[in-house]
Structures are given as C-alpha cells and as structure tokens.
Peptidase M48 domain-containing protein
Amino acid sequence: MCDLLNHAETLRRAAGMPHLTVTAAPHMSGAARAERSHRCSPGPTVVFGGEAVAEPPLVRLATLGHELAHHDLGHTTDPVDYWIIYLQRALGVAALIAALADAWAVLGGLATAAAMVWLATNAMYRRREVAADARALALLDRAGLPGREAMAAMHAADLVVDPWWHAAGGFVFTGHPPVYARARRLDLAR
C-alpha cells in the first residue's frame, strides 16, 4: 500500500491538484471510486475497496490514475449529475400522479421518457469512463510512471471478471463500457 501512496503523491503533482486523499475501505464492494470533496477532506478523494487493495501493484497504479482522472476531468463535480437526479425524481412523481389519475397514456409517455433519460445517462457515464482511461494514461506518462503497462494490466485484470452478457451488449444498461472496448480505445488490445 505504501507504493500506492507514493504514486498518489506523484500523480497529484502531475495533475496539478493541491490536495488528494486516498483511503482504503475493505468492506466496500467494487474496485475503487472517486468521491466528491467534503468537509472532512480538503480535496478530491479516491477510495479503494478490498478488491482493489489486493490487486497487483500495476493494476492499483492504473486504478489510482483512472479515479484521479475522474477528478481531473471534473466528473465528480459536474452539476449535470444533480440535474439528472432531479429529472428522474420529477418523472417518478409525475408517473405516480398519472397512475393515480388513471391517465395511462401519460404514464406510458412518462415511462418512455424515464427509460430514455436512464439510457442517455448510462451513455454519458460510459463516455466518462473512456475519457478517464485516456486521461489516466496521460497523467501516468507525465508523472514518469509506466502508464501503458499499468493500463494494460488493469484492463487484462478486468477482462477476466467482465461478464459475457456485458461484453455482448448488456453494457448499454450500465455506466461502464466493455473492457475490450476500453482497451481498444487506448490501443492496448493485443
């Protein structure tokens, strides 16, 4: 874990960020996530779950770079996320009112609108993931770290656990593109 903290400091400087908090949360499911700043941390936070802490050093390095890239690109502070939440809630309330009023045609239209918002949101998140991969590679290279090797190691590790249905088209219903597509975008596919 010490190597991770040293790399975090190097990447923080490469990104030009004044602060970065890196924490481990062994109970957290998933690999890692970028969190918004809050009053307990002066700047961006990257939280590593138990799975990510146990990964090989190159995979941890790429994961750190990827999550830091989300901060660097402004993904954790984008007000669009709040507007999406408000829009989804408004559609839900309107659908409830339409159902109570027996306005089934309106309810169908609202359900269609909600589905379109959900699919568009997932597409936006997939674009963010690809952008974070590209930015992570640039940050790692700028910091003098093995960016291409680290990103290739991360994608190789993710490819093993990427479900078949996700790669076969199920990614449309999630916020992450298939791993093979992410690797291909960085020309890391072999």
